[in-house]
Amino acid sequence: MTSLESLFITILAILVLITFWWVIFAFSVAVFQFLFSGWDADKIKKAWNSIRFAILGAIITMLILFMVPALAKYTKVEWYQEYSYTNIFKRATDLVSWFSRLLDIGSEVNDPSQSVGSFEL
Q1: Pick from 80, 82, 61: which is nearest to 71 by CA?
Q2: What does DSSP assign to residue 116?
Q3: Domain segments of the chain as ranges
Q4: For residue 13, which of 65, 72, 63 has the smallest C-alpha distance?
Q5: Distance between CA 112 and CA 50 in Å, rounded?
Q6: CA distance 22 to 25
Q7: Using CA atoms, how far apart are residues 75 and 65, in angstroms rounded to an integer?
Q8: CA distance to 18, 57, 73, per residue, from 62 (Å)
Q9: How far apart are the C-alpha atoms of 12 and 18, rounded to whole Å?
Q10: Chain-centre distance of CA 105, in angstroms?
């Protein structure tokens, strides 16, 4: 796989991660809007619309994510096998791991000297 294919998969993975966090944030804001609406009809309507748009954004992103490999195969793009959703999710996982190491998040869990219950057979 060339660097261009790797870059394209990385961009798709970043879009998946951004969309995931955007949906979580938008859904949380909508729930708070709904809970603190004071039963005002306009605020409730705004909260429901926010929930609908968050769900719609997630659905559209997933459709695009699953359509990219199909379009790459249909148009006979070189290395189309690499544009699978599993490779994109693997790259997203790698990016999250890299970012957590960058911020030193979860270093206690990843430190083998502090592992609990490790044993040898």
Answers
A1: 80
A2: S
A3: 3-105
A4: 65
A5: 43
A6: 5
A7: 16
A8: 12, 9, 18
A9: 10
A10: 18
Distance CA 92, CA 14 (A): 7
Residues 6 or more apart whose CB falls under 8 angstroms from that of 100 comprise 106
pLDDT tens-place string over residues 9-18: 899 889 888 9
Cα–Cα distance list, 25 to 11, 16, 18, 45, 64 (Å): 21, 14, 10, 18, 21
Asked if the model's pLDDT at residue 116 lies above 80, the reply is no
DSSP string, the chain: --HHHHHHHHHHHHHHHHHHHHHHHHHHHHHHHHHTSTT-HHHHHHHHHHHHHHHHHHHHHHHHHHHHHHHHHHTT-TTGGGG-HHHHHHHHHHHHHHHHHHHTTTHHHH-GGG-SS----
Amino acid of residue 3:
S
Residue 105 region, left (φ>0) first, then alpha (ψ -120 to 50), else beta? beta
pTM here? 0.70
> How many C-alpha atoms does 86 have within 13 Å on its Cβ side?
3
Question: Which two tokens mark 107?
Answer: 């270093």
